[in-house]
Amino acid sequence: MTMSTPIVLFPTDLSGEVGDAFAQALRIALGMKGALEILHITTDDATPNWAAQPTVRETLVRWKVLPDDATVDAFHALGLQVKVNGRRAESPVDGVLAELAAVPADLVVMATHARHGLERVTQGSVSEAIARKSGRTTLFAPIGASSLVVPADGRVQLQHVLIPMDAGGVAPQAIAGLERLASAVGVERLHVHLLFVGKREELPDTALGQTERWSWSTEVRESNDLAAAINDAAVANSCDLIVMVTHGHDSLGDALFGSTTERVLRYAKVPVLSIPVG
To answer: What is the CATH class of 7-142?
Structure first.
């Protein structure tokens, strides 16, 4: 991998539940003409069983990106690099963070379980911890939720996107991150739903203007539960993706209950793109 090659890191637990996340990671890396690193962390001496993990070649043949009899040269012509890596660590979080320190990925794509309540307290969330501690842009793919990419044929499902905003308006990092993702999966036309949770008289300036590629709408909701309002708006507007900027944990409440992004993720019905700021 050269320094200019975009890198997508896909940590996998090798379960049969990660197919949607894998499809999204592969489709993004393919569109970037970048490198896809498939990473599995082991915490003991057991031999990993890779049988449940979809293979890149089989997936690209199924998507008709490659013919059945594709040669190595045909694969290289795609501009996609693939690395399958195993790492031993004390915990999955430690292992992924160590790998990110060695190979700083541009994007991490992770499947995540919607854990909340007592289950979250007792088991925690590996994906949330990795995103929070790494400070990397992360695409969360909730297991059982809709997917940006159909695993069966590689079709991209990205038309409507929700971006929450605060009193400061729309974070430019959210727009930039969405532009990079949309470009990677080959989507030009989008409708972006801007959501402000608060009083209408406090609505910040949202004059982003219409473009040939993207259109915009603004919604105001009053709610005492910011995360619930975001998820409700995503469902009501048939959104395919939620894009959020995050400052990590910056208060005692965040440390106890999670950041707004983490709370959104626990109930999200669509993928969540988390972009760290600061």
So the answer is: alpha beta
Q: What angle do CA 171, 145, 276 make, to 5 degrees?
A: 25
Residue 204 DSSP one-character state: P
pLDDT digits (tens, 9 = 90+) for 57-88: 999 999 999 999 989 999 999 999 999 998 88
* Contact partners, residue 179, CB within 8 Å, separation at least 6: none
Distance CA 153, CA 62 (A): 6
The β-bridge partners of 107 are 8
Give CATH superfamily name and number for 160-272.
Answer: HUPs (3.40.50.620)
The contacts of residue 165 (CB under 8 Å, 6+ apart) are 171, 194, 195, 196, 204, 206
Spatial distance between the Cα atoms of 171 and 186, rounded to a whole number of angstroms = 23
pTM exceeds 0.70 for this model: yes
